[in-house]
Specification:
heterodimer; A: about 240 residues; 3 helical TM bundles of succinate and fumarate reductases; B: about 260 residues; Ubiquitin-like (UB roll); Fumarate Reductase Iron-sulfur Protein, Chain B, domain 2; five-stranded mixed beta sheet; 7 strands; elongated; binds protoporphyrin IX containing FE; binds FE2/S2 (inorganic) cluster
């Protein structure tokens, strides 16, 4: 068979795709957090950052389509591998397969992944497509339509007011709760995924296995703290 | 001592199976688990009942035949031992012990606790060897191999092919077994010339037999009677990627059979 065909069809080929796309998504998740944490700086910072990201429609769409392709490959490989895993044990043990030495996260990658997928779709409708129905705010809320949130004074007059949008977005407790749950599950997914990907890509042996496991857990907790800090700060009115 | 057994009984590959309860009394705690089953079977036979079918051969932990899932764990409660090296003193008097066959689609049940693991043999036949012309045995020390490499190859070669890794994995993945068999050869100079062809065909066979895929839970290595390390899976993945690249480069250069 041709190499590309083997990459797409064999078990290890699909695991390599899983690991490579997972690694790319991890980089995105880290970069996205660094960008978002600018909410804690004067509001001009994050608005200027958002303006920069939107300054070239070509680059913006190239990155967006690239991300969609990466997520698509990741989810396709996940579904394909998981279906094979299910088929490999049609009759289970009387008390199920016990989790010898296996962490919870490692056994529920597909389930946490599904919640993440649902969250990503919602998140895009909420903040990227900015559909007013998605933010679940009362229709009388002054910031109901995120499209209308523009900076009116100062040097950034006419910029989209992303700072105001983030705050309004987290003013609906149900939305913030879903966000926190999804981020929690994402970080569980990553606490395992960020080590598993090194094995899938063939670069995790000996002492590095334990080091990477520790590192992945620390990074997963840091990512959770970083992402969770935003709705919590909005709730506690630390940013307003 | 006395234990209560809950044993999977199944007449043949296509019959439905069920759990049956047996009381095993008057046991010596220093009996091995298999000796305990022998005693139970003697008693069943003397009552004219069908003995419990279970597989065994060496009874000293080197052949990998004694595949039983004991209380949900392949090879029972011990660490780094096979079923035949498990002793009744590992259980408490009066315990109920559930005994099931290994469960995986590529390991069909033949009878009671006996499963057909010839899928492993077919994976080995697909490339788990070194092609050499037979002749006079070569001098043992003619190819220098560092101790470090020899030790690692031996760690991989510890695998007795019992299938506990498949049995314990939530995905019924055979990657620990295949990676040990790939690595024991690809680590050594004698195995290197065929390393690309070997890993490609053994993985292809593994997939074709219907095993699942590794999700790095680590259960396989935790129950392995020979403590084969997950690191060999990393190694196999790397070998596989190298083989794919070698193949791609070979094709780009217009050569036949890039791998091998
Ligand atoms: C931001 C989103 C996501 C990130 C950063 C991410 C990251 C990762 C990483 C790093 C891995 C380890 C790869 C490996 O095992 O080699 C992984 C595995 C996995 N991911 Fe994701 N993932 C994301 C979304 C999803 C989604 C939406 C699904 C949907 C079902 C999913 C399902 C899985 C599954 C099933 C595995 C385990 C695959 C296996 O071990 O064979 N992930 N993910
Ligand atoms: S009977 Fe040979 S390993 Fe147990």
């Amino acid at each position: 068979m041709k190499p590309l065909q083997l990459l797409l069809q064999s078990s290890i080929g699909k695991k390599v795709i899983m690991g490579a796309t997972g690694a790319a998504l991890v980089l995105f998740v880290i970069g996205h957090l660094v960008g978002n944490l600018q909410i804690f700086l004067p509001k001009e910072k994050i608005n200027a950052y958002a303006h920069l990201l939107h300054s070239s429609a070509g680059v913006l769409w190239a990155v967006r389509l690239g991300l969609v392709a990466i997520v698509g490959l990741h989810v396709w490989a996940a579904i394909s591998l998981t279906a094979q895993n299910k088929a490999a044990r049609p009759v289970n043990y009387v008390e199920g397969t016990r989790p010898y030495a296996a962490s919870w996260a490692s056994r529920y990658m597909f389930h946490t992944g599904l919640v993440i997928a649902a969250f990503v779709v919602y998140h895009l409708l909420h903040y990227t497509a900015q559909l007013p129905v998605a933010n679940l705010l009362p229709s009388t809320h002054p910031a109901k339509d995120f499209n209308q949130l523009l900076v009116t004074t100062g040097a950034q007059s006419g910029y989209r007011d992303v700072h105001a949008m983030l705050i309004a977005g987290f003013q609906q407790p149900i939305v913030s709760l879903f966000y926190l749950i999804a981020i929690g599950l994402l970080c569980l997914h990553l606490s395992h995924g960020m080590t598993a990907m090194f094995q899938s890509l063939g670069v995790q042996e000996g002492v590095w296995r334990t080091r990477l496991e520790k590192g992945a857990q620390v990074l997963a907790i840091a990512l959770f703290a970083g992402y969770a800090s935003i709705p919590i700060a909005v709730y506690l009115r630390i940013v307003q | 001592m006395k234990v209560n057994l809950r044993v999977w009984r199944q007449r043949g590959p296509d019959s439905p199976g069920e759990f049956k309860n047996y009381e095993a009394a008057d046991l010596n705690p220093n009996m091995s688990f298999l000796e305990m089953l022998d005693v139970v079977n003697d008693r069943l036979a003397s009552r004219g009942e069908e003995p419990i079918a279970f597989a065994h051969d060496c009874r000293e932990g080197i052949c990998g035949t004694c595949c039983l899932n004991i209380n949900g764990k392949p090879h029972g409660p011990g660490r780094a031992i096979a079923t035949c090296q498990t002793y009744m003193r590992s259980f408490r008097d009066g315990d109920t012990i559930t005994i099931e066959p290994f469960r995986a689609k590529p390991f069909p049940i033949l009878k009671d606790l006996v499963v057909d693991r010839s899928a492993f043999d077919r994976i080995m036949q697909s490339g788990g060897y070194v092609s050499v012309r037979t002749g006079a045995a070569p001098d043992g020390n003619s190819i220098p191999i560092s101790k470090e490499i020899a030790d690692r190859a031996m760690d991989a070669a510890q695998c007795i092919g019992c299938g506990a890794c498949v049995a314990a994995c939530k995905n019924a993945s055979a990657m620990l077994f295949v990676s040990a068999k790939v690595s024991q050869l690809s680590l050594l100079p004698q195995g290197r010339p065929e390393r690309h062809r070997r890993v490609l065909s053994m993985v292809a066979k593994m997939d074709e037999e219907g095993f699942g895929n590794c999700t790095v839970t680590g259960s396989c290595a935790a129950v392995c009677p020979k403590e084969v390390s997950l690191d060999f899976i990393t190694r196999m993945n790397r070998d596989y990627l190298a083989a794919l690249m070698h193949e791609a480069v070979g094709r780009a250069a217009g050569k036949e059979g890039g791998a091998g």
